[in-house]
Amino acid sequence: MIDCFYRRLGTDGEYQIFDSTDGTRSNWDADIQHGSPPLALMTKLIEELAADSPLRIGRLSLDILGAIPVAPVRVRTWVSRPGSRISLMVGEMLAAAPDGSQRAVARVTAWLLARSDTSDVATDRYPPLVEGDAVSVPHSWQGAKGYLETLSWRRQRTAEGEPAVAWISPLVPLVDSDPTTPLQRLAMVVDSANGAGAALDPQRFMFMNTDTVVHLHELPVGNDFALRARASIGPDGIGVTTAELFDRQGFIGTSAQTLLVMRRP
């Protein structure tokens, strides 16, 4: 039974070491990790690094630097650009290469910005989304083991030509039984925008994302998130998935992903 994404194994100098559980396994390839667990883990460590800061995260950007194995990983975080109003923090994940050396497999950069009271001028581009009855088939990877087993995925009925909408909730903690913050829970599902907004049949095409960039004008609340997503596929094997992100209270931000599109043999 999958009860979390990662388990702590200890520390080694500036690195924290985690074992990756079956819950991290990608629906594309069971030997590698889905993008959301690494994003969420590095988000957790960046939040911990920023615990005493008055700034808050406004952008998260995950770059997948290579295949992330379902194996022990080492993660470190640091402040790349300190500042009292704007700061850049970085998380880096390493895993063992075939020769036994450690290689960087993923990196998250986070812009943190100073808070101030702008409640009198706050605006939203979109009204809140209200969850309705889910369709019977939530996505095109029905029966896939690993990461998709850790989610409640409720695809909504949408009209022809409209972006897809899926309400997604994580069902397990991120690390052991540690409390999981709302931002970490959002990170645990947001990489799924590519699947939610898929424009191609995954039986005929592979469309893996190389990155996930999240902009948040409001911090998320709760455990339930809606991704209103749509993919655009170019003529030369490159695509983009963009999504609007919602919690139960309303619109909170956007995400974008670059896609490598290839025909399956």
The percent of residues in helical segments reads 10-25%
Q: What multimeric state do the chains show?
A: single chain
Distance between the termini: 33 Å
Order of helices and strands: EEHEEEEEEHHEEEEE
How large is the count of helical segments?
3
Number of strands: 13
Descriptive report:
- Helices cover 10% and strands 42% of the residues.
- The chain contains 3 helices and 13 strands.
- Strands 1, 2, 3, 4, 5, 6, 7, 8, 9, 10, 11, 12 and 13 form a 13-stranded antiparallel β-sheet that branches.
- Strand 4 and strand 5 (86-96) form a beta hairpin.
- It is globular.
- The mean pLDDT is 96.
Topology:
Layout: E1 6-12, E2 15-20, H1 36-49, E3 55-64, E4 73-81, E5 86-96, E6 102-114, E7 151-155, E8 164-170, H2 182-190, H3 193-196, E9 205-209, E10 211-216, E11 225-233, E12 238-247, E13 250-263
Antiparallel strand pairs: 1-2, 2-4, 3-6, 3-10, 4-5, 5-6, 7-8, 8-11, 9-13, 10-13, 11-12, 12-13
Helix pairs in contact: 1-2
Short descriptors:
single chain; about 260 residues; mainly beta; 13-stranded antiparallel beta sheet; 3 helices; globular
Can you summarize this structure?
The protein is mainly β and 265 residues long.
